Every structure is written in C-alpha cells, then in structure tokens.
Amino acid sequence: MTTIKQGLLTADDLLRLYSQGVKGELIRGVLQEKVSTGGKHGDTAFALGAEIRAYARPRRLGRVGGTDTGILLEQNPDTVREPDIYYISAEKLPLDIQVPGYYEVVPDLVAEVFSPTDKPPEFNAKIQMWLNFGVRQVLAIYPQTRAITTHHPNRPPVTLTYNDTLDCNDVIPGFQCPVREIFDL
Predict the structure, then answer these.
(1) CATH code of 80's domain
(2) Is residue 122 assigned to a domain?
(3) pLDDT at 38
(4) In b/e form, how buried is each residue of 4-39, taking b as 16+ CB within 10 angstroms?
(5) Helix/strand/coil percentages in the chain, nearest 5
(6) Which of 21, 83, 127, 172 could staple 110 via S-S, CB 3.0–4.6 A?
(7) Of 44, 32, 26, 28, which Cα lies nearest the Cα of 111?
C-alpha cells in the first residue's frame, strides 16, 4: 500500500508515487488517481495517435505521445495532466532535446477520449482546461457515437461524424484523417 502525505503534492511527489505504482494526475496539488478505461478507449486513442505520428514523424513536425506522459502545466501548486494524445510542435520543443521528467511546454494539440468512467461535466471541464492553458486544438473523441468534437480557442466547437474528415491543418500542417480511420479497427 502506498502512503500519500497530507497536504498538497508536487510534480516530484507524483513522479515518486508513479514509481510506487500509483497512477494519476495532479490538479493544483491534489492527486486524482486514474483508473483503467477499457479496451475501446485505448484502441481509439492509439488509432488517432498512430495516424498523427505516421504523418508528423517523417516530416519531423513534432512529438506525438499519449497517456502516462505528464505535462506540467503550472507550479505552486502543481498541475500535471496526462492527455490521451498530445502533439507538441518541433518549434516549441526541438526533437533533439530529451526530457527526462514531465514536459513543461503546453501541447499544440490534445485529444481526450470519452470513456465509460467519464462524467460529461468533468470531461467538458477537462477540454476547457486544456484550452485555458493555451492548447490550440482539443479533440473530444466519443467512441460510442463515433464522433469527434473539435475545439479551438475563440471558435465554436465543430462535431464531426463517421463520414467526415478530421482536419488539424491549423496545428499540424497538412494533417487530415477520415474519422472512420480512428474508429474502424
């Protein structure tokens, strides 16, 4: 059993806890433990991440990763979030720089997959949180309905369905992907 000290935790505390098997995020110093989200969630996140990486990597546009990668968003108190998928441009974080701990740069794009354990108000708050921290495009992915809602700062959200094409050109130059590619396994 892991002992968690009382009071606010730091990003360093979270790294230590992770090495002890505790998985979670910090929200202004408070640990939010994460639970397994199931196969459909993982399959969907991986499919989108694979599409973005297959496009961005050979063009050396940026880094693509996913859950278990902490993004340190603020300090004192610390907030460390783990997006399901993130993209950070090479302009923001050059590809030759190795980061041993948390990334301390806000991603350009984040995707969050709605899972069976999510509640709509909390999920929507997470989407808004990413936008508030400066993410340029946030994708809310809904596997059950095979829909993706794209969010940009200061623009209304747009919902895409199975036969539409996801366009991330504002953030990842030239990247487009049929929505069906994310949901068809």
Answers:
(1) 3.90.1570.10
(2) yes
(3) 66
(4) eeeeebbbebbeebeeeeeebbbbebebeeeeebee
(5) 25, 30, 45
(6) 83
(7) 44
Q: Which residue has the tokens 């709605």?
A: 114
Q: Whole-model pTM above 0.85? A: yes
Q: pLDDT of 124-146, one tens digit each?
A: 999 999 999 999 999 999 999 99
Task: Encode 41-82 in three state secondary structure.
Answer: HHHHHHHHHHHHHHHHHHHCCEEEEECCCCEEEECCCCEEEC
The pLDDT tens digits for 33-83 are 776 666 788 889 999 999 999 999 999 999 999 877 889 999 999 999 999
Tokens of 69: 């990668």
Query: Hey, which residues does 141 pair with through a beta bridge?
Result: 113, 148
Structurally, how many domains does the chain consist of? 1
Please state, in angstroms and as integers, the Cα–Cα distance from residue 81 to each residue in 26, 107, 185, following that order.
7, 11, 28
Among positive and negative, which fits the CA dihedral 161, 52, 37, 34?
Answer: negative
Domain, as residue range, for 121: 37-183
Q: Cβ neighbours of residue 54 under 8 Å, at least 6 residues apart? A: none
The string of pLDDT tens digits covering residues 110-119 is: 999 998 888 9
* Local confidence band at 13 (pLDDT 50, 70, 90 cut-offs): confident
Would you say residue 164 lies in a domain?
yes
Q: What pLDDT does residue 42 have? A: 84
